[in-house]
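The data layer described in this paper is built around a simple, fixed record for each protein. Because each token names a local backbone shape, the row as a whole describes the fold. We quote a single record here, exactly as it is kept in our systems:

***
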Amino acid sequence: MEWNKKTTAYFPESQRRKLEEIEKYLSRQEYFSNENLNKSRIILLLVDNFYELFVENNSRTKYPNRLDQLKKIKPKDNEKLLRDISQIRQMQDIQALITLANYQNLVQQNDYDPRKKLRSFNYGDSKEINVLMNRILQILKEDVVQAKQIKDTNQKKKK
């Protein structure tokens, strides 16, 4: 099927009403406040969204299966993903601090070898690792508190 640059689409009454509801929904969104939302723009948005959700990354998934996947996504799934991402970020922060601590120790002591001093992180029975992890977690908590204080101070200045 070849598409012309300018195409006419015929909508049954029920589909036309749905298109009008979509238009009302989009016009209420702040995201589009600086945009002229005519019917052509709305159709382009629908095509872009359909392409992104169904074709771009899921071209091998059959339409009904992909539709079911999307319908099954619930807000609590997103909350769980956000919690998981937060935990991953915290683990990355911990890893960065451990790396910095190891680097600092290596620079200060030429004969320092963390593998000799600390047992495996997975065992959790090393007193040094437990102390180190508690200190790292404390530093992260202090950093979060400090960032919140800075944010609150900046917000008060703006008022």
Observations:
- The helical segments are 13-27, 39-56, 63-72, 75-108, 114-117, 127-158.
- The longest helix spans residues 75-108.
- The mean pLDDT is 79.
- The two ends are 58 Å apart (CA to CA).
